[in-house]
Amino acid sequence: MTNITTVLFDLDGTLLPMDQDIFTAEYFKLLCKKMSSYGYEPEKLTKAVRQGMHAMVQNNGSASNETVFWNCFSNIFGQKVFDDKKYFDEFYLNEFQKAKKFCSYTADAEKTVRAVKEAGLRTVLATNPIFPKTATESRIRWAGLEPCDFEIYTTYENISYCKPNINYYKEILNKLGLKPQECVMVGNDVSEDMPAREIGMNVFLVTDCLINKNNDDINKYPHGSLDTVSRFILSSQ
Description:
Layout: E1 6-9, H1 20-35, H2 42-57, H3 65-77, H4 80-93, H5 108-118, E2 122-125, H6 133-142, E3 152-153, H7 166-176, E4 183-187, H8 190-193, E5 202-206, E6 223-224, H9 229-235
Parallel strand pairs: 1-2, 1-4, 2-3, 4-5, 5-6
Helix pairs in contact: 1-2, 2-3, 5-9
């Protein structure tokens, strides 16, 4: 692995330790509590948001994930959702912040990103873009980092694919004028992050909050805890 110029970092479970199932469940509780005041029945709302997320995962690049989500969501609740979008925006600015307590923290996140940047490498936050910018920026800060630590960070507004679609990774490369061989994708999810290797990216699997739904043999990937990432990348230069 030589001539690396750019490191792509996943967020949830990689730079921001968490149990994804617990976080998701608590996120929906907070969202439902907020939106019940505006006529959104919790069970129907949860199902609709999940359908919107699924639509984003299936996005073929014809529109932003944001557009795909709200089109799907409006098919369920009607055009009123576009008037109510301001309440969802309020949620991410306010109530969503309570979800921080369902995440952990590791100083290794800042140390790793700082070490990579100090070595002159570019940094990208390649988190699955199913959240709006506000929510993504909050989660970056929960990890002890700042949005400006990354050249770009993917959100549902600025990307038209989702993981594990390899076109998600291609879209990032196109935005930054990069070749896959000069990049390393660092993430904790075997089925979502490791497919970057299919287009020629180098990969590193973070095992602290490992997600391996298909019980794949992780020995085929360079892997280890987050505190080994920068050493692995820089020693390979």
